[in-house]
Amino acid sequence: MDLFSRSWTALRTAVADVPDEDFERPSGCTGWLVRDLVCHLVIDAQDVLITLVTPAGTEPTVDAVTYWQLVEPPTGEDPLDALIPRLAAAYGEPRWLKFHLDDVGSAAGRAAELADPAVRVSTRDEVLTVGDYLSAYVLEWTLHHLDLIAHLPSAAEPSAETLAAARALLEKIAGAAFPASFSDKDALLIGTGRRTPTDEEKAALGDFAAKLPLIIG
Q1: pTM for the structure as a whole
Q2: SS (H, E, C) the chain
């Protein structure tokens, strides 16, 4: 839960520090501008709030690892994916997106800090503990932090601790470890298809390369 709070606070701080003119730059999410990504984060924050107040009385069906499923790369045809750019554009000025993320995001952060990690909650037709749910989101926040700063070289990166935790979770999802020579950041970017590996990196990956990219959803 501590890593959830750290990664979420760092991501929200990074968004707050993005100059208004950079909201029109591309993000690390294919087809999305920075403003579109920030709009997606608002929806993510709402999902966290909803999940934390949706208790479940049955046994967990997933944990922090199995919560994420490997899916096909997005085609742009998903209605929600198509809605995000239109919704982001409707905000007009970046300050309103920043305000909404700070407002809803702060509430999601407080709710996470107050939640009992042992309580079971329901989301996406699955049941898991709050602790596992928040642990799963460390990967989400870390990847989107990297997406946010993909074309913003002066922006702050995720902390080393959260990068390491996100890598460890991605490796558990994949059922295999990235080469020790890969930095945590490179493992995440290459592993999720956000960066193409070099020939040397492909050689180091060996048979693992055939499993990539790992698109989670």
Answers
A1: 0.96
A2: CHHHHHHHHHHHHHHHHCCHHHHHCECCCCCCEHHHHHHHHHHHHHHHHHHHCCECCCCCCCCCCCCCCECCCCCCCCHHHHHHHHHHHHCCCHHHHHHHHHHHHHHHHHHHHHCCCCCEEEECCEEEEHHHHHHHHHHHHHHHHHHHCCCCCCCCCCCHHHHHHHHHHHHHHHCCCCCCCCCHHHHHHHHCCCCCCCHHHHHHHHHHHHHCCCCEC
